[in-house]
Amino acid sequence: MTATEAGPGTSVGAALGRKEDARLITGRTMWTDNVTLPGMLHLAILRSPMAHARITHLDVTPALESPGVITAFSGREVADVQGSLPCAWPVTEDTVVPDYPPIAVDEVRHTGEPVAVVAARDKASAEDALELIEVDYEPLPVVLDMEAALADDAPLVHRDQGSNRCYTWTFDSAEAGTGGDVTRAESDAEVVVTRRFSQQRLIPAFMEPRSIVVDPTGDQITMWSATQVPHILRLMLAMVTGTPEHKVRVVAPDVGGGFGGKLQVTPEEFIAFVAANRIGRPVKFTESRSETMMSGHHGRDQIQDVTISARRDGSVTGLSVRLLANMGAYLGLVTPGVPVLGAFMYNAIYKFPAYRFECTGVFTNTTKTDAYRGAGRPEATFAIERAMDELAAELGMDPLELRRRNWINHDEFPFTTVSTLTYDSGNYEAATERAKELFGYDELRREQERRRAAGDTVQLGIGVSTFTEMCGLAPSRVLGSLNYGAGGWETASVRVLPTGKVEVVTGTSPHGQGHETAWSQIAADQLGVPFEDIEVLHGDTRSSHKGLDTYGSRSLAVGGAALVHACEKVVDKARPVAAHLLECDPADLEFTDGAFRVRGSPESAKTIADCSLAVFNAHDLPEGMEPSLDSDATYDPANFSFPHGSHLCATEVDTETGRVRIRSYVAVDDVGRVVNPTIVEGQVHGGIAQGIAQALYEEASYDDDGNLLAGTFVDYLVPSATDLPTITTDRTETPAPDHPLGAKGVGEAGTIASTPAVVNAVVDALRPSGVTDVPMPCTPERVWRAARSTEGSERS
Amino acid sequence: MSRINLTVDGVRYDDDVDPRTLLVHHLRERLGKVGTVVGCDTTNCGACTVLMDGQGVKSCTVLAAQADGRTIDTIEGLAGEDGTLHPVQQAFHERHALQCGYCTPGMIMAAVDLLSENPDPTEDEVREGLEGNLCRCTGYQNIVGAVRDAAATMRAEVPAPRESTTETVEGTAPTTTGEVAR
């Protein structure tokens, strides 16, 4: 007997206001940079101005003369204690994992790489002293372009490795036995569409710059960090530095956004850890925005060669993908795994009978790449959704009709795909129908025809993206098969206090997602305890000793399930207590509406609070009964979950100025059962905003010497309120069959879906003039050039 | 060092400051007003927005010495002494206009500044008015809705129950998700 017999509660599914907001809207938030400790020193980091150079001379002693400076050191001085930053996901046995010192010792390999550190009484004194440090660099050849980096005579990023190739990971459905042979599919095809897409480099651009405080004075060394992954960070600090794990405490207090950008174990965290231990006093390092952009990891940066083979009736027969993925100069925590995660998503919602994928990771003299919202899945979804539109154009078919002819029907789930995943559930037909209706698809197509015929200078474009994605990272056995260095489970503990109030301890680590609210809703329903009586504790290894943190849309999908199971155990432990109090047989009790009642006599009831007081007193419990209701559960998912949706975008594209205006955007998402619709809608809005940003605005490019050209918010165009449209959202709801609440996950869906919807709409607007692609971001200049180049070719 | 006096959230402070000290650093590091945060170093993000003599300023772009003799209002002083939230704060909560909350202090102060100049802004006017404040989480849609809700509340002078205020607001962000309270 478990809490599920209470049936659906009243809290899950309700649009409750967030508990987190009270402190966030009044300025009483605990950001890491707000942490101030007695005797605390401030660090500043000297960074390389060169993209590739040998350090021939480095002297920190002049900095020591500067007022307020306590100490200064270079990489060489801490070489034996700083360790090498970890990569947890070498995707193949022969993946090249170069040494990655937090502070460069002999050689720098990208601009912004740390070369020396100053500790001073305040930040300004530390920064002043940086300018006194003497460094001589001997420039080395720089390689930035991935194809150039793979040439035989290319300059080497890591000269001891002999090549810039990090790994090559392949999948072939013929070899795996999940499908046919792509080469044969292509030679037999009636239509073959081949495209090259470029995923520009992006910067996560969370609003709170990363910040670290380390206190080495206690029995445990405590690190506060603006991180998504306090538990992984603790483990890595211990493993890399040799500090015993139980002597390290990590706290992620309020964290101001992450989007994958704080799914990292950073050089700066190790530098602060080493500095605090070396000095014996607390230290703080808070980075500037330009340091974040230069040194925090970037996202995307792939070249995608995609080929779809098909018959004239539109049915697809094969898919091949060849990928180059820019690693940057070093490997971060999961750098090599990001494009491999995408490998499972290229076939998307379509029944491809044959699939081949090959990805080569490439080192260049750039900041490392790693997870950014979606991590591999947005890249894959972009490529397939763009390519499907190109195929539709080639066939003269409506892009939604092409999709309908190829997608998995709702009665075909669970469906095992050509890339080996088993999609749990979905209803692409329902989501698409709803989206078409809200969008006014047919009417917009008619308007488009009229305006094309009239030769309007501003053309209407309609973009389609029918996507799925994989949430709930991840079944541990799958991660093991992909050579990942950890499992994918999540954990939760429920502590029932004597007064019946409840503390939920979670291994997830929210940084804007509202777990304090959503987890309270789940526990409230499971335990029959008021929403207000629940406190959610997270992000401090002292209270939450175990967890795998928040990324990959895993928190509700995995951590939420763990919480349900922990609550069920509380109810199971309370049942004999209630039976004892009611002087009945436990088997005669049912747990409904938050209380145990004897079947047939509902007037006598005992709540969880009654039981918790009874176990607190423990005066007359039966012999051998443990006087506690506290319970924990660790949940390892059996499968991923697969939310999906249909996004439609209408753009007004000015062919004379290149300006793109999003006229309307409809998103119908199916994320399974929803715990808090307000939070889900917010995630969809924000996700779509980041996907639009990739389509139209953001790009982190380098000049020929390897200097980041978008190192501030002046040059890196995070969209403002005037740059984004109002979005119409709706949901269909297909519960996840493997999840106790039926929930799937929503954190990345909007970002995955929206980029191809927008670019498809831009290309669609220009297609009558022969345009078949506009590279991202679709800036006015690029749109204008695309429109003009085809005009020119038509004239010639 | 320059001697400055400031009135911050109703409290007077006299301090000696380094001429190069930015107002935001003075607020955070000397006065302990850590509710105001720093998000960038180029005056683009607006996370540090405060009111100086009632006008919105980005406190990373004002020297502490320039603020001598001025009155500064920050997010920490916005609610009433009894804890009653300012209508903008209340609307941000009700409209889910924040996620991580890092941009929120600056966003709220910029919205207060906007509404003091334009008590009944259109959606476009809100978007233009908040153009100098970046949010990475929300896509701004709920922020725009919150600011217009707050405007309606403030125009009605007495804070009205949420249901009755939203009904009077035209052109609020459309949604077809039935369960979302509006």
Rounded to the nearest angstrom, the radius of gyration of chain B is: 17 Å
In the CATH hierarchy, the architecture of the largest domain in chain B is Orthogonal Bundle
Sheet having the most strands of chain A: 7 strands, mixed
**What percent of the residues of chain B sit in helical stretches (DSSP H or I)?**
25-40%
Number of domains of chain A: 3
Biggest sheet strand line-up of chain A: 3-5-1-12-9-10-11
What is the element string of chain B, with H for helices and E for strands?
EEHEEEHHHHH
The CATH homologous superfamily of the largest domain in chain B corresponds to [2Fe-2S]-binding domain
Largest sheet of chain B: 5 strands, mixed
DSSP, total strands of chain B: 5
Q: Give the proportion of residues in helices of chain A.
A: 25-40%
Q: Rg of chain A to the nearest angstrom?
A: 28 Å
CATH topology of the largest domain in chain A: Aldehyde Oxidoreductase, domain 4
Q: Output the CATH topology of the largest domain in chain B.
A: DNA polymerase, domain 1
Secondary structure tally: strands of chain A: 28
Organism (chain B): Halostreptopolyspora alba
InterPro entries (chain B): 2Fe-2S-bd, 2Fe-2S-bd_dom_sf, 2Fe-2S_ferredoxin-like_sf, 2Fe-2S_ferredoxin-type, Beta-grasp_dom_sf, Diverse_Oxidoreductases
Protein name (chain B): (2Fe-2S)-binding protein
GO molecular function, one term (chain B): metal ion binding
Topology (elements, then pairings):
The complex is a heterodimer of chains A (796) and B (182).
Chain A: H1 21-24, E1 41-47, E2 53-59, H2 61-64, E3 69-74, E4 107-108, E5 114-120, H3 123-130, E6 134-139, H4 146-149, E7 165-172, H5 173-176, H6 182-188, E8 191-202, E9 211-215, E10 221-225, H7 230-241, E11 248-251, H8 267-279, E12 283-286, H9 289-295, E13 299-310, E14 316-328, H10 337-343, E15 355-363, H11 377-395, H12 399-406, E16 415-416, E17 422-423, H13 428-439, H14 441-454, E18 458-468, H15 476-481, E19 490-496, E20 502-506, H16 515-527, E21 534-537, H17 555-582, E22 589-592, E23 595-598, E24 601-607, H18 608-617, E25 631-635, E26 644-654, E27 660-670, H19 677-696, E28 727-731, H20 749-766, H21 780-795
Parallel strand pairs in A: 1-12, 10-11, 14-15, 20-21, 27-28
Antiparallel strand pairs in A: 1-5, 2-4, 2-6, 3-5, 7-15, 8-13, 9-10, 9-12, 13-14, 16-17, 18-26, 19-20, 19-25, 22-23, 23-24, 26-27
Chain B: E1 2-8, E2 11-17, H1 23-30, E3 49-52, E4 55-58, E5 71-73, H2 87-94, H3 104-117, H4 123-129, H5 141-155, H6 162-168
Helix pairs in contact in B: 2-5
